[in-house]
Amino acid sequence: MEIKYSDIRKHLIKKDNQWDGEGLAFVTHYLQSQDNGSSKYFRKEAEEYLETLIHDLEFNYVLPFHFDIPFPPTENHDFRFIDLFAGIGGFRIAFQELNGKCVYSSEWNKYAKITYEANFGEVPFGDITRIDENKIPDHDILVGGFPCQPFSIAGVSKKNALGRHHGFLDKTQGTLFFDIARIIESKKPKAFLLENVKNLRSHDRGKTFRIIKETLKELEYHVFDEILDARHYVPQHRERIFIVGFSRKYFGEKVEFKFPEPPEGEKRFGDILESRPDPRYTLSDHLWGYLQEYARKHKAKGNGFGFGLTDVNGVARTLSARYYKDGSEILIKQGNGNNPRRLTPEECKRLMGFPEEFLIKDIGVSDTQLYKQFGNSVAVPVVRAVAASMMEIIRSHKKDNMEVLRKKRVKVLTQSQVKNVTASN
């Protein structure tokens, strides 16, 4: 009988508090690393964890087995990548589609880990500040959307109001970029892709972004950055900065990288809406009344704060991690005198460009957490487009190197033949 990941999972994930440790991360990474030479990084801890967790003598995790999950690990991969600040796997989907194999993932949020595991069959490692870079497998590409709150307009405004630090002075999140730099310095990937909010460029009068770019350049990388709006890929106005780097040691001193041109036109918001959403997503009279009064007060003060009723033929505002609170930035009109409603989690999934098969139902994650997860995620089609442009550079360079090697071999063979002929004469 064929062994399935779901059979193994029943033995692995039994208690809610298991998500707080690293045992599941070691085991699931080990199970996915049998065909790529990375198992040595996880085997010892994985086997120790299995010995303490599993007492069922009939349990057998003999490899290989079938990954019956929406996004199984890539077979016969072309390249390897790691997924830092992984969230729920928006980067991973895009790079796996390009035939990449994820050999390491990291995400600190417990509920994001649950969603990630349900779709990829892998539990990410936790706090990146505690991760030993020497225990991360070698890889070709590093990807990560490091925390944006220290640099976002909303995050900076809130922390200023509370008298708290932001940017690099935010001790909990602002310095996490340097953990990325630490890993890049140690593992020296051929390329990387990072993502953050648009405001990263202007934060602290440009000083923050200048430090980031200088740090990456000091690590011997060509660095490119561009602000891309997701509205050309999904019906949402979502501007994010993407930072791409290529190793000077691998690619040489000249790399001509261009960010992808957006497809023509914009998407239609109405296309992502469910035909029969659950009535529980309709705003209560109390909440709807509060939002209208809140908007009226700010309008009287000359401010633009308030709710947003989204045109079904247009694009939505930016979906944020606070959407779970009241849904005010993206509301949908309803007929028959009903109050507006917020998006369902399934609609949020579509708004962020996740594939239909991405699993969010019946996985043990609440709507509140799903709203946070999609609000913090990347727009998958945008990452897919940037990743494809990066792979053009990587594959072209690999092809050129192979051609150079071929010519060298031909030259050596030719010289050898000449010597043989000369010697015979």
CATH class of the largest domain: Alpha Beta
Principal-axes shape call: globular
Supply the CATH superfamily name of the largest domain. Answer: Vaccinia Virus protein VP39
Helix content: 25-40%
CATH architecture of the largest domain: 3-Layer(aba) Sandwich
Please give the count of helices: 14
Q: Spell out the helices and strands N to C.
A: HHHEHEHEHHEHEEHHHEEHHH
CATH topology of the largest domain: Rossmann fold
The number of strands is: 8
- The oligomeric state is single chain
**Distance between termini?**
68 Å
Percent of residues in beta strands: 5-15%
Structural class: alpha/beta
* Strand order in space, largest sheet: 2-1-3-4-6-5
Please state the CA-atom Rg, rounded to the nearest Å: 25 Å
Largest sheet: 6 strands, mixed
Mean pLDDT, nearest integer? 87
Describe the structure.
The chain is 39% helix and 11% strand. With 425 residues, the chain is an alpha/beta fold. The protein folds into 2 domains: 73-264 and 378-398, Rossmann fold (3-Layer(aba) Sandwich), CATH 3.40.50.150; 269-376, DNA Methylase, subunit A, domain 2 (DNA Methylase, Chain A, domain 2, Alpha-Beta Complex). The chain has a 6-stranded mixed sheet, sandwiched between helices. The protein has a two-stranded antiparallel sheet with strand order 7-8. A hairpin with an 8-residue loop joins strand 7 (331-332) and strand 8. Helix 4 runs parallel beside helix 14. It is globular. The relative contact order is 0.10. Mean pLDDT is 87; it is low at 152-174.
